[in-house]
Amino acid sequence: MIATPPAILIDCDPGIDDCLALMYLAGLHHAGDIELVGVTTTAGNVEAYQTAANARWILDLCSLGDVPVAPGLTRPLKVDLTTTPETHGSTGLGYATAPTTTLHHSDWQRLWKEALAAHHDLQLIVTGPVTNLAAFEEAHSEAVAQFGAITIMGGAVNYRGNTTPTAEWNFWVDPHAAAQHFHSSAPRVPTTLCSLELTEQFLITPQRLEAVMELLHGHPMAHILRDVLRYYFEFHQAQGEGYQAQIHDLLTCMIALGQIDFEVVETTVDVEAESPLLRGTSVADLRNHWGRAHNARLVTSADMEAAHQECLRGFTLLASR
């Protein structure tokens, strides 16, 4: 019997690191390692329609014009939308700008339901605010139970934040969605959570970018990737973190797909939504003070050198198309 490649649905907000994640998934899709069945987008780094236009452009450049893209909800569940042009540029892709496009898939919830119906053990990867996931859970709780796995990039679990002293960007943008998800996720489908203290360790430097550019020589993505990442390098340098970039979402995809070694701890995660001072703060009850059912597999470490090698493998597969 020929093994069926895992079916992947990604909900993202491109975003520079989302861009690299989509490139990686495209490479694996072309190689038959996965089947990328759809991309939906949230409002986060930029507005939801712009993130969808960015995703559509990246997939088209990666020869995946047949993979559907649909914009999701246009604002967080209860708070006003805040975007981050200072981090990702005015249109989300640094110094690059996606062309005006027509998105043929406009119903993101239908896309999710059709993907669940068509693919046993569908894996969901969320690399932006969890707005769409929380809304889908509320409207279709039984359908969510059909996911084979859910992996999220978000939170700064018991760790310093990158948006406030205690909060990571994705959870801060829509704290009510993050809180709602973790309140509803036990014991149905435990979430694999890749939080900031892990993902900020995966760094692309100018030297590593040049290695990627050599692999992508002649590929359409090679024409924009320097412009995309240069903005991110400059942002991190302005933050005092050096001329390099933390690529949170690509690492999350590798972990979701089990392509590198990593360690997890089963725990209970919660997110503060109501406090203005602690908005988006995420906490893991590692000592079971709450006595609540576990709702997360918190990734505590990963093989970063293996992640860099897997990154190159994915981009090699992409370049072969």
UniProtKB/TrEMBL annotation:
* Record's keyword terms, sorted: Glycosidase, Hydrolase
Pfam families (UniProt xref): IU_nuc_hydro
Signal peptide residue numbers: none
Domain Inosine/uridine-preferring nucleoside hydrolase residues, every copy: 8-307
Keyword Chloroplast appears in the UniProt entry: no
The protein's matches in Gene3D superfamilies, at most eight in alphabetical order, are given as: Ribonucleoside hydrolase-like (3.90.245.10)
InterPro entries, from UniProt? Inosine/uridine_hydrolase_dom, IUNH, Ribo_hydro-like
* MF-aspect GO terms: hydrolase activity
Protein known as: Nucleoside hydrolase
